[in-house]
Design goal:
Helix content is about 55%, strand content about 5%. It is of the alpha/beta class. The strands form three sheets. Strands 5, 6, 7, 8, 9, 10 and 11 form a seven-stranded parallel sheet that branches. It has a two-stranded antiparallel sheet with strand order 1-2.
Amino acid sequence: TLAASYLEKGRDYEVDYKGRRVTLTDNGFATAADLLGVADDPLGLFGTDTKWAAYLFPALNAKELYFRERDYLVDQGEVKIVDEFTGRVMEGRRWNGGLHQAVEAKERVDVKPEQITVASITYQSLFLLYPTLSGMTGTAFSEAKELSDTYKLDVLRVPTAKPLLRADAGDLVFKSKLDKFRYVLRDIREKNSRGQPVLCGTTSIEDATLISELLSNDGVPHRVLNANPKLARKESEIVSQAGRLGAVTIATNMAGRGTDILLGGNAALTARLRLREALAPAVDEMLEPLVRVERSLYPVNDLGAIEQQLQEAAAAAAPGLRQAIFSNEDNSTEVKASNALDKIDEFCAVAVAPPSERTEGQPGVDACRQAYNAVKSKFSEVVDVERQQVREQGGLAVLGTERHESVRIDNQLRGRSGRQGDAGASVYAISLEDKMFNVFGSDKMGQLSFAFEIAGDDGEPLQSDMLTKSLSTIQEKVESYYREMRTNLVRYDRIVDAQRRIFYERRQEVLTGDRAFLSKLLGQYAADTARDTLANATRLLPKDASDDEKNQAYEFGAEMLQRMYPACAVEIDTACRLALEDLPPTQAPDIFTVEDSLVSGTQKGFDLQVALVDQKGEGEDDLPAILMRFYILREFDQAWQQHLRDLEFLRENVGFQSYSQKDPFQEWTIQSNELFTKLSAKVYRNSAISWLSLDASGIVARPAAPVAPASPVVSDDDDVSNPVAAAQARGAASLNANDQTGEAAGNRGERRAKKKGGKKSRRR
């Protein structure tokens, strides 16, 4: 990371924003090697001992391509990835290839070890495992071809129930981001002054924070939804009120999606929130801060007599809720707050639903339902009035601050307005400094800049058919680029998917197989390894090799096999001696005779190993099957993890095959299948070696189960008035019995010693 900070963009390295990678120049390689002290190493950064390249390139990627508040957050000393499509934190996810460690070093937080990929599957392959696929979304029509090619699904367009009244304006193009944000501030301020609600969408946390600061400085009240993990539960609450009179909401991408924005507010949802806010502290006072709702979200602050009704309903429901939450826990403090809130949410869902036989008789449900209906009616009086006022102002106005790389995501933001026949408006304000122009629109930048030169640089936006067409061309270029990436991913993954299916079928067979199956499987592994060992030992023998050379090669192969299979060493030696007893000492046997003797000795040693391990088992435990299954599964899992790393490396570098006039996909198919064949051979060899290297004599029997303490249960002979004393008496009686047994054993030992001539027994 320190070396990466000294290197300069343009001089030492080039950045490919489209391919998201950094390439060192010749000067960069020399400078980095000098900084890291490997200038004298012929391999430089790629030395086998130092491997600086594996650290430097992720550090440069973290420096130039990954930014705080856009691609990740730093929360309590931990780097958390932000989903670029939803703007939400992906808990527990980490980048591979040392990138996450490089970002942690860049942010000066504790660097955690890299995660090991145990298994992986693409979304496409995962979905195709299901026998039936279907879905419903408002933005799938633009992706109909890809859905058809990948999943063989047809996309049908369903007409809207009510006519669409939303006015979608053309894009407003600014020369700089500064001009764009100035316009955004003016537009939000103007709409807020006359009461029209505004939903401002951004593509990064950084932009959302900047707009929030500008509005705060201008005194415009607003709410911000970004990737803050603390607001994840409250996203839908805030977004649902974005249609209130004069509301201003700033949302990162699709935060809070799935919640309808109703003009004037949502009386049903706010009434439910008010019910939950009353229930939580009645169950446990510790939950009150977690469900507290900002008062401005409620249409009415003072509920009057309804407040008393709400509190009484919560008090009536609290005992039953408390029992449901804490009944299965040994200690109520161990119940997580999120679990408690989930139980309260479930109760609220039942309370706000119409009465049914299933909910009849539940304590507090009817009282909470009546209180909820009273609150909802009170809120509806205000919401209905505001809804009409908002409609008169033109409905919800959606203001996008940057075009996304996909038209589908842009349409999702537009679709937050004009729902169910409501009035609305949408417009995108973009600038030539936006990411999409810098990465994909370099060939269009000339004519766009020329348009601004003609119009003059006065900070005002441009709108024209030429600009709209250019923007559409750029976005289509972006979409086709990412579509091609996904298509290639599916194409390459078909090979891996076939390997994955074979691997997991074999693994499942081992997992469910009995001793007979595992013995046959592992015995075959051992026999195949014996043949391979002999083949490797004789591989370099010339055709006219002498008998002495052949005997040396055979002896070497037998010794190697005995070292790999210590449990079979004696049997292999015996089998070889029996095969050679009829031959003169100087004559070399036939290679097939040697192979048969090695395989025969291996199989006899294998059977003996099974018998020896079986003697160590106890009860119904099939110890040989347990150990064989363990060794095979361990090798399966370790080999598959390495196979995934090898495939990832191959996938990253197979593109260079095109320079030698080879098809990268064909080379990928050939080399990935070769890797899978080697994986299978490695699993067979290592699992057989592990099993036949086991020292059966060193297996320790399972320790006996501890003696259960005296039961406090009262028996017929116990004093019922004092069961504790009765249990103690039984325990004392048990101890006395043990003492008597010990004395008897001691007397037997003395008598045995007298019979042996007065010598003491050596048994302990």
